[in-house]
Amino acid sequence: MADERAEGDRAVPNPEFDQLLDQLIHPAEDVLTAQQRLRGLLRANRSVIGDLSLSSVLRRIVEAACELVDAEYGALGVISPEGGLDEFIHVGMDEDAVARIGRLPEGKGLLGALIEDPCPIRLRDLHDDPRSVGFPAGHPPMRGFLGVPIRVRNEVFGNLYLASEADANFTAEDEEMVSALAATAGVAIENARLYGEAERRQVWLRATTEITRQLLLVEDGDALRLISERVVELAAADIVTVVLPAEEGRDLVVAVAVGPGAGDVRDAAYPIEGTLTERVLSTGRAAVLEDSAELSRIERGVVDLRDGSSVGPVMALPLAGARGIRGVLMIGRRHGRRTFGEADVDMATTFANQASVALELADGRRDAQRMTLLEERARIARDLHDHVIQQLFASGMTLQGALIALGDSPAAEPVARVVDDIDDAIRQIRTSIFQLRPHSPLGGGLRAAVLEVVRTVVPSLGHEPFVYFAGPVDVVSDDSLADDASAVVREALTNAARHARSTRVDVGVSVSGPTLRITVDDDGVGLSTSPRSSGLANLQQRAEERGGSFRVGTPDSGRGTRVVWEVPTR
Predict the structure, then answer these.
(1) 83-104 pLDDT, tens per residue?
(2) Minimal CA–CA distance to 121: which of 77, 155, 162, 156?
(3) What's the pTM?
């Protein structure tokens, strides 16, 4: 009986029950797996949307995708405007492997196929696909492949690439999960872009406020350099140049060239016809080129970098003024760097417009200061003419009357010297009065021409020459004679600046009867063994053509150089 009871207690196999139990267990396991994967997707989504830095977001997307489907390698390729890969963010390879591979992918083979047709690609063995072009030396082996596009506002931003070494098959479920993550990634990328753009706008606006204040405190040449230096920083540029139209309007001149890659192109001139600068000057609107190869050959040389490499993206902005476009701001980035987008153009244009307004305000302030200075100088000139000269003239007349009374007395000689000194003082004051008075831009005769030449040579000379006039200089109305006289003074002063090492230079212009005489004396090192430069030979030719003479010698002091140029006034 005991044996029968033991036999009855044994489990009796029930195939139907086991089958039913399996049907319950397997779906439960599938549900549990699905729940785990959904939790993984939620974690991945939270990880992706938890940052607003675009570079961090892109890396988190790749890391989250690898974790989601247990991929050993992952990468995100950002598509460039040309259709290749602008950026390539990868995970799973150590630094040694990356160094062995060398260059990053360019978007060919399977990577390029996903760019051309942005639809998911899932392969058990990527080597079996005819689109695969193989791997470079040093690349780790890969078999399973899953590629999914990432869209931002219905445009393909880039592609997510996942791979594994083993013969592991990415499933349709993996594809769905990664596609869902890619949708979230698109939103995260857009948010990061908007945040980054807002930050850049804030930086540009802050710089715009600062540049307005700074431009009111600097000179015009320094103002253009200051604008360019700020743009280099704000636009992450390798070179920024300011190009201005020449006075004739047929040529362009580089006024400023700054940036880490800027070469020595300042003051370079080139024809305006057919250039990007001409287009911006004529339209008054910004222009963007994806590659400087679209520029004319000469204009491309202006923005080339000093290390010999070429500029890629170029942005040209007008610097507007009250009387039209005053110049063009050329901004360049090294070849291969990101092109300028709409946001870049918008922010840079706002900055350039505000900088132009600040330049106009600075010009107006300087004009007001110049007007105040000119008015003050005119007042001083009137006082000198109406009071000082008249008093000196009266004193001279009194002394001349005394000379007549003294006759041959020994006291007559010092009185005569005083009269001569008064005459010299009157001539010097008249010269000063003429310099103080504002001159017409249309000309002002021989005196104005000589004084203008002297003014322009002072910086290179290092000191201001003493200029004196004698005789009816202002009645010389021959423009060509005034041009020749200006050339004489300019060449003589330039020679003194280059070779004489002088501390004093006297320029005398006198008209006596039918003769104009120009004398330039300096106290420098004197004549060299061959004093005839091409410039001096030119002055002699000018004198001979007018029937005059030209000679170079030594002043009465015995030191330095004297240049004498004499020609008939008619």
Answers:
(1) 667 778 888 887 777 777 766 6
(2) 162
(3) 0.51
